[in-house]
Write a structure and sequence with these properties.
heterodimer; A: Immunoglobulin-like; 6 strands; 41% helix; B: alpha+beta; Immunoglobulin-like; 2 domains; 5-stranded mixed beta sheet; 4-stranded antiparallel beta sheet; 9 strands
């Protein structure tokens, strides 16, 4: 104790013994204290990054110009309209330097080329993170209340989706996520309102269960409920992980609540005389282009066919034979809103196709299922389960109301604060990983969670997560002029008897008219200006393909002559383009000189044969439609207008606008309308 | 890794150390020891690429197909149970990073490319006391612009420029009298400047005295579209495209 005391007093004496020395020491301490602030600044992270940047550019050839553009100090992008205060560019110094494209060292990399500028939009709108922060950790990985870590690169497209509600070329993942959101029926339970107030609509077609017993058996319903993917791997119906007893009770309730409907099972035209022709089945299935919409698993286990309709691999296990025949005869009797066309098959064809489809069954499927008749208590339990699980959110069920607000609204899920999320043990604490986990294994978050198990691949889950992350509070707060609205489907409905025919033939499932319909087949909004009457009549009778390389083709409907005429008249009269001027086009017949000149242009100057075939012996291109009989198919006015600018008539077509002169377009049109096909008047020269 | 780094930051170590750890952050990610639990039961003397090489993916996302390599012995027969380790440039991750070959001698892993667009050179190696062998694999990651290009290529170009046919998409390549260059054909395309490629796209083949079978897209594609197309072609070019550097006068 004594030596320490002695040491302290001698130190005191040495420092403050003399008043002048004391003054000096105090001044020194004060000076050091004052130096703390600039020293802190000097040793701050952003400062060291700026020094490091200067060292990086020091030896580069363009160091002078890079250094001239470098500004020391904290940089800030302030966009009050967007709520952006971003200081990221304090350290990310090379974002705008094109010459730094070879630098791979962060934070100095050049920003990849994107449509928006850093100055105009800042950083956090797309990347997330804390724009105001000036330390690496706080800017990138803060998890404090109301703050979000930066978005992993694989979800970056969600940033675009905050303003762009339409499908952009550059965001395939976001687009596919939005498609899944609608196609898997997420929005039946979870309401999603876009920033402009419109609702996301489901595009799936969950069948009504009000007369399900006409279509299938309780045993099938049981097996289906237990594991929908075991019946059809491609179905969007999720797995509810039901116990045997629960599935049995639900199936009992559904069958007992089903009310038979006239016409579901008794076909009027299928007489005993119409017997199935087994050898004709596959041909009829192929000729009717069922595979354009329905998929079937082949021997190798791959799905072959479209996904507009349900998979038919095991349809024989599901459908009652009498229902299947009635359905094939006219699907609109069972389901008035089905996307399936009324083919108008002959009784013989119905029998053949029904037998062909009925044979598509798996003898092992559901073979061990034996259900006892259900008691009153079990019916009640089945109904209770249906209400609890929200089956009626998607399916119409007798005696059960469609639930309102069944699941949480997801309109701002992309801004869900981390503090409100209960993470699973061992899970990364971030919103994207929470959403992914919720989609992959919803029941892992507790046994009371009602959300079922969807079958999505890893890329599909990522896409869906991207679409959900785009639903942010920031997106809703954006100024209106920045918002790009989605293009909504119109509710266009053609009129009269022809309109009824168009609905019955489900033309809208594949074709688009006036902004409504599918995209599998050409848009027919201007079809009336485009084609000639005789061709249209023949085509509706027997559609022969125009594009040899396409797999999906127009099926043949057995239209009566009257219906055919009705439809032809309507298409020609109603779907006329106002922009087509018949006076500009050359007449239907032209002098051989003009035709020859057009031929020269076709083969030499414009080399149209790279994509089209006119002479089947010499030409080989088959990207565009075959033009061997284009003179009998299209009107001269349409050909002329098309040549002048194909994109104006059909936006998104692959054919480039070649900016033809009027003379060249007239000559080419003259040559093309001379191509009347093998049976036409102007057959091969 | 991220979390450990995060913690070190908040403790408040000096800026210089933070800088050091930040720049090495990406590096640490792939130098972490591979699964120590795996024990090789056999060893091969050769590694061959089965599938999954030369894929074109998107930055920061997993490649579509898994990477499969096969371990063979001196006689060219597959070796099951050999340990294969995968390594990549910074930012690349493998799931799993080390794997034992299966009964047909193949090791399969899924590859996620880094956030930087460009070519990634990956390697697979068998670790062993006797003659470790390794194999180089090249994958390409597309950034935003290159991917827009790839989508446009798919719509407008690949039907003729890509000779690969599938039942869903029949190639028109064989039907053309003058064969177009596939975009991967670096030997031909790397010699053309961006300006030349642009004028062919805008004005068609005749612009550079080439075949009229190549139509003009100047009234169909925007300037940004054309830039994206070229960025894509440059990204997938094999051998890789080397950008002409800018020459600056050096100060004395």
């Amino acid at each position: 104790m004594q030596p320490i005391k002695k040491y302290v007093s001698s130190a005191w004496q040495a420092l403050f013994g003399d008043p002048v020395r004391a003054f000096g020491v105090v001044s020194l301490i004060l000076l050091l204290a004052l130096a703390i602030a600039p020293a802190k600044e000097h040793f701050s992270q952003w400062h060291s990054f700026q020094r490091k940047y200067l060292a990086l550019i020091h030896d580069r050839g363009d160091a002078i110009s890079l250094r001239r553009r470098f500004e020391p100090g904290i940089h800030q992008i302030w966009l009050p309209e967007l709520g952006v205060v971003d200081r990221c560019t304090t350290c990310h110094l090379g974002l705008k330097e094109a010459s730094l494209s070879d630098v791979n060292q962060q934070p100095f990399r050049k920003h990849p080329v994107v449509p928006h500028s850093v100055d105009g939009f800042g950083c956090v709108i797309c990347h997330g993170g804390q724009g105001q922060a000036t330390t690496v950790a706080e800017a990138h990985w803060s998890e404090r209340a109301g703050e979000q870590p930066i978005l992993p690169m694989r979800y970056i497209e969600s940033g675009c989706g905050q303003c762009h509600q339409n499908a952009l070329t550059g965001t395939p993942q976001l687009n596919s996520g939005r498609t899944i959101l609608a196609r898997y029926g997420c929005v039946h339970c979870h309401a999603i309102t876009r920033p402009d107030g419109s609702k996301v609509e489901a595009t799936d077609h969950p069948p009504s269960l009000t007369h399900i017993a006409d279509k299938t058996t309780r045993e099938w319903i049981f097996s289906w409920l237990k594991d929908p993917q075991a019946y059809a791997g491609s179905t969007t119906m999720p797995n509810y992980k039901l116990s045997d007893a629960d599935a049995s009770d639900i199936s009992a309730f559904l069958v007992s609540s089903s009310r038979p409907q006239a016409g579901d099972a008794n076909t009027t035209s299928v007489k005993p005389s119409a017997t199935a022709d087994p050898s004709a089945g596959p041909t009829l299935y192929g000729e009717s282009f069922c595979a354009s919409c329905h998929a079937v698993q082949n021997a190798a286990g791959n799905l072959v066919g479209g996904e507009l309709g349900p998979e038919l691999t095991r349809i024989g296990n599901k459908a009652r034979p009498e229902w299947l025949a009635a359905w094939l005869e006219n699907p609109r009797v069972y389901d008035a809103t089905t996307p399936m066309p009324h083919y108008r098959f002959t009784p013989q064809q119905v029998a053949t196709l029904a037998a062909f489809l009925q044979a598509k069954s798996d003898s092992d499927y559901g073979s061990g299922v034996h259900l006892d008749a259900a008691s009153q208590q079990q019916f009640a339990h089945g109904r209770k389960l249906i209400v609890e699980l929200g089956c009626a959110a998607c399916h119409e069920i007798n005696g059960v109301q469609k639930p309102e607000n069944f699941a949480p609204d997801l309109s701002t899920i992309g801004s869900k604060p981390l503090a409100q999320i209960v993470f699973l043990p061992g899970m990364e604490h971030s919103l994207p990983s929470y959403i992914v986990a919720k989609i992959r294994q919803p029941r892992a978050f507790g046994s009371s969670v009602k959300m079922p198990q969807f079958t999505l691949t890893a890329p599909q889950t990522e896409a869906l997560t991207t679409a959900l992350l785009a639903l942010t509070a920031r997106g809703r707060a954006m100024p209106d002029n920045l918002r790009v609205a989605a293009v909504p489907e119109t509710n266009y409905q053609p009129a009269g008897h022809a309109g009824k025919l168009i609905t019955e033939l489900a033309c809208f499932s594949c074709h688009r008219f006036n902004g409504r319909g599918g995209d599998m087949a050409p848009d027919l909004t201007w079809e009336g200006s485009s084609v000639q009457r005789q061709w249209l009549t023949d085509f509706l009778h027997n559609p022969n393909t125009l594009r040899p390389s396409l797999i999906r083709r127009m099926p043949r409907f057995n239209l009566s002559d009257g219906d055919n005429k009705e439809l032809t008249d309507y298409l020609l009269a109603v779907y006329q383009s106002p922009s087509i001027d018949a006076d500009l086009a050359p007449p239907a017949t032209n002098s051989p000189d003009v035709v020859e000149h057009g031929k020269q242009l076709f083969y030499s100057k414009y080399a149209c044969q790279s994509c089209h075939i006119v002479d089947t012996k010499a030409d080989k291109g088959y990207i565009g439609p075959t033009l061997t009989q284009v003179g009998s198919r299209l009107t001269p006015a349409w050909i002329y207008a098309w040549l002048k600018n194909p994109l104006a008539l059909r936006p998104g077509t692959t054919e480039p606008n070649q900016n033809l002169s009027d003379d060249d377009a007239r000559a080419l049109t003259a040559f093309l309308i001379s191509q009347k096909g093998p049976t036409g008047r102007g057959a091969k020269q | 890794m991220m979390r450990r780094f995060n913690a070190s930051m908040t403790i408040g170590i000096s800026g210089a150390f933070a800088l050091l750890s930040f720049t090495t952050l990406v590096g640490c990610k792939h130098s972490a020891p591979a699964n120590p639990g795996l024990k090789a039961t056999a060893q091969g003397t050769a590694l061959v690429e089965s599938s999954g090489g030369h894929q074109v993916g998107v930055t920061g996302t997993a490649l579509k197909d898994p990477l499969v390599v096969q371990v063979n012995d001196d006689h060219g027969t597959a070796v099951p149970g050999a340990l294969v380790e995968f390594h990549g440039s910074p930012g690349v991750s493998f799931d799993p990073a080390a794997v034992l070959t299966d009964s047909s001698g193949q090791a399969t892993t899924s590859v996620t490319l880094g956030a930087i667009a460009g070519r990634y050179e990956l390697s697979a190696a068998t670790s062993g006391k006797v003659k470790p062998v390794s194999l180089e694999i090249v994958e390409t990651a597309l950034g935003y612009q290159e991917r827009v290009g790839s989508i446009l290529v798919d719509k407008y170009c690949s039907r003729c420029h890509d000779s690969e046919s599938s039942p869903g998409r029949v190639s028109n390549y064989d039907n053309l009298e003058v064969k177009p260059h596939p975009f991967t054909e670096g030997n031909a395309l790397n010699k053309m400047s961006d300006a030349d490629v642009t004028s062919i796209i805008l004005h068609g083949g005749p612009a550079l005295n080439r075949s009229a079978l190549m139509p003009p897209y100047g009234n169909t594609l925007s300037a940004a579209d054309v830039k994206a197309l070229i960025a894509y072609a440059r990204a997938v070019s094999d051998p890789p495209y080397q950008q002409a550097g800018t020459v600056y006068a050096r100060p004395n």
